[in-house]
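Here is the promised in-class demo. Please do not try to memorize the tokens; focus on the logic of going from shape to residues.
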């Protein structure tokens, strides 16, 4: 039995080499060819494992292929790279088509979704630092040109009470897009917060040549600040303005927070408006 010729089907791995420069295939190319081999029984069985593990190279620098490789050429390629005394007689798919497009590179920013919770009294001190904050995307011009950004996986942490450094992956791309990075590093700076009270002088702006008296001249401000920044934060780090031109309403001027300390959160101040009185010159 094993001395006779037999047939067997084997999925042969395929690799494509020497693609046209600055071009990329936009269609999905088969990674395996289901190939029917014929050969002497004992010899074919002995080589079956090797045939399923040995990758067949398809060299696209061959001018004969142009935009397709037909079955006859595929069989010739397989047979030239297979052991003697074994012959590939059919394969599937019976031809491979190539659709090429110009390949370009583009730098795009990363969007990092996050889901964070903190223990009572703790909060994030500043925006999460990510490295890198952008990646190079390479692929077909028709796709890359339209990319404005790319999303990472979600950063998830619960009950945070201390700073943390780690890494996270980016969302999977299409098969014909390559990224310069597939993982990014991130740094979450966590601090313990406490309340701070300050008295802030109101700054009157856009009053032109009008002489005004505002009442009150100061407001009481409350905010949360990191404990390790408490003594560094002063009233000079805040600015509350009364814009006479834009924000006056029936004898009052609504106040706006114009500047704040870098790490201050949950800022509140009172009153929210001041009364103004015109003074005669």
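The designed amino acids, position by position:
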């Amino acid at each position: 039995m094993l001395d006779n010729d037999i047939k067997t089907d084997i999925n042969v791995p395929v690799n494509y080499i020497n693609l046209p420069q600055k071009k990329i295939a936009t269609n999905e190319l088969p990674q395996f060819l289901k190939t029917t081999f014929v050969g002497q029984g004992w010899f074919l069985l002995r080589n079956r494992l090797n045939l399923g593990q040995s990758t067949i190279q398809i060299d696209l620098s061959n001018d004969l292929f142009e935009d397709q490789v037909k079955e006859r050429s595929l069989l010739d390629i397989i047979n030239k790279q297979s052991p003697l005394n074994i012959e590939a007689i059919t394969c599937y798919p019976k031809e491979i088509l190539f659709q090429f497009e110009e390949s370009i590179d583009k730098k795009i920013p990363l969007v990092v979704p996050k889901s964070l919770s903190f223990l009572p009294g703790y909060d994030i001190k500043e925006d999460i630092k990510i490295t890198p904050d952008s990646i190079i995307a390479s692929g077909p011009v028709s796709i890359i040109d339209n990319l404005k950004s790319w999303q990472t996986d979600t950063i998830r942490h619960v009950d945070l009470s201390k700073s943390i450094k780690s890494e996270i992956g980016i969302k999977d791309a299409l098969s014909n897009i390559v990224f310069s990075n597939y993982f990014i590093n991130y740094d979450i700076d966590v601090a313990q917060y406490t309340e701070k009270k300050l008295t802030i002088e109101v700054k009157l702006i856009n009053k032109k040549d009008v002489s005004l008296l505002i009442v009150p001249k100061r407001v009481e401000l409350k905010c949360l600040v990191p404990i390790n920044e408490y003594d560094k934060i002063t009233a000079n780090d805040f600015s509350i303005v009364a814009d006479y031109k834009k924000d006056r309403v029936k004898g009052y001027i609504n106040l706006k927070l114009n500047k704040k300390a870098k790490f201050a959160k949950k800022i509140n101040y009172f009153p929210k408006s001041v009364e103004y009185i015109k003074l005669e010159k």
